[in-house]
Amino acid sequence: MWWWRLLVPLLAAAVLVGPRESPCGSDRYELHGLCCDYCPAGFYVSRVCDVDRGTECSPCEPGSYMAHRNRETACLPCAECRERDQELVSDCTRDSNRRCQCKTGSYYCDSEDCTEACHRCSRCDGPTLETCNATRDTICATEGNPEPGDPPRSRAGSSHIWTVVVTIAIVAIITVAVAVAVACCRRRDESRDSGGPGDTQRRVSLLPQDAEHGQPATGVDSVPLLEHQGLPMVPSEDPKARVQLQEVVPTRSEASQEQAPQAQAPAAPGGPDQTEAAVPLHALEQQYEQKYVLKDGSPEATNRIYFEFGQEVPKTSWRMFMRLAGLEENDIVICEHENPGNLAEQHHRMLLRWQSKLGRTASPFRLMAVLCKMQLRECLENIINKLVTEDILGSKDAEPPN
Fold first, then answer.
1. Where are the stretches annotated Disordered (predicted)?
2. What is the DSSP string of 88-112?
């Protein structure tokens, strides 16, 4: 049987050389050239199919489960509730895992960061508004938030609150009055300054000024505020004032000539009027296929691509990333249980399963489209830049014509 040890690496290399589409469809899986049936939830493969017989399935043993259809030779172990800070919600069955929660009244967990231990409930020095439960800490009553059923405060407390409210109202009124007065004075001064005959050539600038040269700050749009916001100009009853206003406000062409040319960022796939989340996934994938070309399809390059995606995609978004890419939930759970505590290996195994299941449709452009749809723009740009730098990915626009 020494030849079998040489055959296994050759088969593994053949799988990595190029993904191929499974001829068995989505209802069955391929094994040694045969199409075998999956085992249903609650069962595992006790005997793989061969030429003479089909797949044989056996129910999960006590203490194990399998939540989805599968091709695994063993069920997953059931979770255990911690005696110190957890209590049982539902017991483990053949097709569902055991569910635990923090002990009501003593511990709580309000996020995904407390999987190792629950938080101890807080205690109030005064009245309690809401008691602690499994998913929320205790809510204590404050001076401005009395406990339901408390008697009304004394007159001295009410009178103190009214004094504070009246004081705040008076300060607000005085502030508004001063602001209105300053605005009126500034408007009167501007109208007085614009009355001279030599002021018709002066332009009104509402832009931040450079402190050293008195010119508009670099990079700021020099289009006047009224035109830039698309607001209609109110016609003046005085013909001279209307002429002055037309001379003061520059046209859009003049403003575009005055400002320095600036580089514009490339538009995201889907166009400026359409967000990535609204564009279908296959359309985004086609756009990336039209823009980039995979220059290296070797197994080493494929592993490098998967490494970059595993490094850049946030771990909190990874499960959703793989679901949108087309990997089933059962495969995600199996990869996590087979590589406990090793996040990088879990991600790599999921991508390899995804490649094996989707076949030819499993391309880096689909993964890029998923990140674009999830609006993870920064990590998508980092991945593309790294793959271009390593000469694995190339831009079709940069290639010379044939």
1. 230-275
2. EEE--BTTB--EEEEPTTTEE--SG
